[in-house]
Amino acid sequence: MIAIDEPFLRRVRRRWNPREMMTAPALDDNQPSGPVELRYALLINPFYPKDANASFGKHVLTPTLALTSFAATTPDHWRVDYWDENLLDGRPPFRPLPQVVGITVHLTFARRAYELADWYRARGAKVIFGGLHVLSCPDECAPHADALALGDGVQLWPRILRDIESNNLQPRYVATYENDYCEDPSPRRALLPRRSFLTTTSLIATRGCHNRCGFCFLATDGLRMPYRMRDPQQVVDEFKADNQPYAVFIDNNLGSRRDYLHSLCSALRPLNKIWSAAVTIDVTDDPSLIRNMALAGCTGVFIGFESLSDDNLADSHKKTPKTSDYARRVRILHDYGIQVNGSFVLGFDHDRKDVFACTADWIEENRLECATFHILTPYPATPLFRQMEGQGRILHRDWNLYDTGHAVFQPKHMTPEELEQGYAWIYQRLFSHASIWRRRPQDWQAIPLYLAMSYLYKRSNRFWHLLIKHDLVNPVWKPLVEMTRWRHVRYRRQLAERDMTAGAPGVVVSAGV
Ligand code: B12
Ligand code: SF4
Fold first, then answer.
1. Which residues line ligand 1 (CB under 6 A)?
2. Closest C-alpha to 117, from 11, 44, 206
3. How remote is the CA of residue 317 from the centroid of ligand 2, in Å?
4. Residue 503, Cα to own-chain centre: how many angstroms?
């Protein structure tokens, strides 16, 4: 048992953070405007500072689909380029100057998005903003862009380009998320640099979630996102077409409709590939679903446990099983060889200073292979933000610090400094040699891969910026992934043969991410 006051016995050492992971590349104000290339669009994922407590590896695990999803609707007579400032290749290109610059905006990189937008606009490009922050704070974004895309870019992007061609650009475009998801084209993954990510295959099969937790961006005012699903065959085709051994589903919750997940698994199974996805813990209500996921290649799930306090979960309106049953449910996943990456939010109103030690204990006791922590963050235009604002607990509106690594509100039972100290401590504890070892898989044959993955992911922050800068992410990571896939295919064969009633113990095949 970890002593309750351990997180506070000494100041947690600040982690080393290389400059390029903290500071956006400079934009040269003296650069004169060049000729604009007509029908050339540049799409930008802006830079955001990385939190040195967490793994830098997560930023290059798999790319966001924010831009590639709607890039697929670009008319053929337009040229389109993609630039992710987080890949450390410097500032986005400007020669020739694009006619249109499309930028995705989240609150944590809103300030950088505005800098980029102001720079390109001053030189004659038209700037279009879209993304979560545009939806929650349109009036703040508007002065920096020629047009805002509120909602689904897949529906809006071709309209925007058409209006630009006819010189009729409107200041706001609005689309909902209620159309048939099967009609969306596949994301344009060919735009992505393949060596820069563990896998370029970020798949998305569904949008939305059956829950509406008060702290989640899905609860943003005005966002209507019913649960929509793509045809499983479309997902399979995309997985095949990208030709990678491993895919990450970036769905909010791939498990909201169990019948759908069953059919998706049946479609994925023949591929003999591996994947991971975010699901809620209630998927374990149906162990046959977990078995199907394993047979279909699921090696890991990302589960938003959020909290080990039922009161916190009730306050958030999260429909979830009792926390006292979480351990049994984790065992079900482990029994089918599926590793668990647990996501925990710290700083809820029922959290006291013991939350850090208790959460770390629970994670180690239940051998969660990986864990991700977030300081509770009231995103603007959500019920949580309104509640905190109503209670006068919002400390500031510096969105840069709304990155779930900083306390931006007044917690109930500790100071903001204690919350940040506890957050830094729990990451350091879970990334320590001792904790990694304590959570090793039961099967000794799985241990070498587990250690290799864990050390690369959790203890290599000194090297990640070099791997990223020199385009080595995929080459370094891929052999481990291939080995995992190979072991998993063998495991799946055994699982298929295993008599369900015999209850033979499972083997966690992969671990680390
Ligand atoms: C992939 C992902 C990541 C990746 C890559 C992030 C990146 N920016 O490059 C990684 C793992 C690195 C990551 C990290 C983090 N993430 Co993240 N991440 C996601 C995830 C799972 C998928 C994003 C995605 O591809 N969505 C699918 C696309 C198609 O949807 P979309 O982005 O909304 O885009 C659509 C529209 O908005 C619009 N659109 C978007 N941009 C534009 C631009 C133009 C010009 C137009 C026309 C339209 C348009 O069109 C698109 C198609 O409909 C989302 C959850 C989710 N499922 O969305 C969380 C999410 C975006 N992440 C979130 C958070 C909090 C983080 C972290 C802060 C967590 C942490 N502490 O580490 C970090 C910080 C990163 C950062 N500052 O952005 C939150 C953001 C909440 C908020 N209100 O801002 C989300 C929503 C998760 C959640 N449920 O809370 N993340
Ligand atoms: S379960 Fe997760 S994705 Fe669904 S609403 Fe809650 S926090 Fe958001």
1. 45, 48, 54, 58-59, 61, 64-66, 69-70, 102-104, 106-109, 128, 130-132, 149, 152-154, 156-157, 204, 216-217, 250-252, 374, 379, 403-405
2. 44
3. 10
4. 34
Q: Give residue-wise pLDDT tens across range 230-279.
A: 999 999 999 999 999 999 999 999 999 999 999 999 999 999 999 999 99
User: Residues with Cβ < 8 Å from 476, sequence gap 6 or more?
Assistant: 456, 467
Q: What is the pLDDT of residue 400?
A: 96
Instruction: Specify the DSSP element, H or E, that contains 61.
Output: none
**pLDDT reading at 291 higher than 50:** yes
| DSSP 3-state of 368 | coil
Q: How many angstroms separate the CA atoms of 261 and 229, rounded?
A: 10
131: left (phi over 0), alpha (psi -120 to 50) or beta: left
Cβ of 452 less than 6 Å from ligand 2: no
Distances (CA, A) of 251 to 20, 207, 277: 29, 6, 7
Question: How confident is the model at residue 295, as a pLDDT?
Answer: 98
**What distances in angstroms separate CA 459 from CA 118, 162, 365, 392, 428, one per listed residue?**
38, 48, 21, 39, 10
Q: How far is CA 16 from CA 269, 293, 469, in A?
A: 42, 39, 18
The answer to whether 11 touches 421, Cβ cutoff 8 Å, is yes
Distance 303 CA to ligand 2 centre (A): 10
| Cα–Cα separations (whole angstroms), residue 348 to 55, 410, 417, 500 | 24, 10, 15, 40
Residue 76 CB partners (closer than 8 Å, separation 6+): none
Which regions of 377-431 does DSSP assign to beta strands (E)? Answer: none
Count CA atoms closer than 13 A to 317's CA, side-chain side: 12
Mean of the pLDDT values across residues 452-476? 95
pLDDT exceeds 70 at position 304: yes
Q: Name residue 490's amino acid.
A: R
pLDDT value at position 508? 62
Mean of the pLDDT values across residues 307-330?
Answer: 97
Q: Are 277 and 302 in contact (CB under 8 A)?
A: yes
**Residues 102 and 128: beta-carbon distance below 8 Å:** yes
Work out whether strand 370-375 and strand 36-45 pair parallel, antiparallel, or are unpaired: unpaired
Cis peptide before 25 (omega within 30 of 0): no
pLDDT value for 83: 98
Residue 126: closest CA among 159, 97, 154: 97
Measured between alpha carbons, how far is 135 from 225 in angstroms, rounded to an integer? 13
Could you read off the pLDDT of 156-189 as tens digits, one per residue?
A: 999 999 999 999 999 999 999 999 999 999 999 9
Q: What are phi and psi of 184, to 5 degrees?
A: -70, 140
Tokens 């506070």, residue located: 8
Smallest-distance ligand from the CA of 111: 1
pLDDT value at position 512? 41
Question: 3 is written with which tokens?
Answer: 């002593």
What pLDDT does residue 32 have? 84
